[in-house]
């Protein structure tokens, strides 16, 4: 939990990592794909395999944390639905969240919309399609982050044009997931069950 061994710790701070570790085995996970903030507990699960003489250790895939969509959020938070894009979000929900996202004009540093383009959209599509009126420069296809950041910093690329491009790209990525939940009866029932749970802080 980011504390040193000399710090005072409550019982919850001891039990919480143990419970996270137990999740891996309870779920019978072969692959644990989580953020870097979960890496230590995932490694604890692998070390525990040595203690119990388990040969097949879970594979750990750690990825960087995505920033929250709202100002000042270093990472997405499932307890604040407006700060995160969920796999089951509708097309309209994605568009609304991105429309409300923190994206100050001409500011690259700490801009979550630009981070999503850098880390998700460009690697996925190798380009970003910005659609805009001729009076605002017309449609433009960006193929690298340097060009996007240069236009964004100069003001040639406005948040009002960047955000819809980001929303379109994210929605294209999520559409196969939506189709799966819409067309597979078992998946549809699972999604209904998941949505029935209330997220608490």
From TrEMBL:
It comes from the Eukaryota. Keywords: Aminoacyl-tRNA synthetase, ATP-binding, Ligase, Nucleotide-binding, Protein biosynthesis. This is tyrosine--tRNA ligase. Its EC number is 6.1.1.1. Belongs to the class-I aminoacyl-tRNA synthetase family. The keyword Cell membrane does not apply. InterPro entries: aa-tRNA-synth_Ic, Rossmann-like_a/b/a_fold, Tyr-tRNA-ligase_arc/euk-type, Tyr-tRNA_synthase. Pfam families: tRNA-synt_1b. It catalyses: tRNA(Tyr) + L-tyrosine + ATP = L-tyrosyl-tRNA(Tyr) + AMP + diphosphate + H(+). The keyword Aminoacyl-tRNA synthetase applies.
